[in-house]
Fold this protein.
Amino acid sequence: MATKVRLFPEMKKRLIIHFFCIFLLGLIVIDCSTYWSHRKKDLGDVFTAGVETPGYGLGVRIGPLATGFVFQGGESEPGKRDLGTGYGLRGGTFGPYRSQQLIFGFLGGEKFHSMPPTETSPQKEETKKTGSDPKSGQDFLLLPENPESEQDPNPTPELSDERLNSKSYEIRYLRFYNNPVSERRKAKKEAFFRKYLESLDPDKRNEAIQTFLAQNPKNKDDYPSAFLFEVELYISIRYGIRLGFNFGEFLDFLLGFAGIDLMEDDI
């Protein structure tokens, strides 16, 4: 019995020393600054609070279900959908952003992306060939050119921050209920061809490929996973406010402390 009493303090000291060593090793292996940076961004994803202009109407959205009458955004000239801006917390960041929304009953659509320092649309350039001259007998790639009618006059820009890109979207609410097979196939082909071009030029040094990718940005006409768990209220008379809470992002924030990235946005 006396032996057990003498051994217990020694075992306790060893456990404390082992725990302390493991803790120090964890601090060395894990980048604490990155960890807390992700937690901060996840917390920002939970809430939406912004002031937007121009806009008129009242609307409520619960996931993909939107109802009300809202016209937010607009055109500075026919065919140029370049109006609709906001400032506040949205998409996990605080600052200026592009916001356009149309709700008529339960139909409509919405566009959102953070504003880069200088927002510019890709310039149209003559389609070029990549690789060697076809006369030399070597393989070459001819990049297709989209018809003028299919080009978006105001495409969603590709931002330098990949996380901000993942939060950007341009969608139609009806797509959640009705997404034709032909459009799904077209989107898959475009995504495959884009990934193929990116694999050909991983260092981004081929001018023709990079020009084509800039002129044909990624298709944002889809629902980000977090979009389905968002509850938003929008009210405006010229200047409006948008308030929201995302239950999916809130769960992602809580699970993030255990290292679980539910929304796959810790990038």
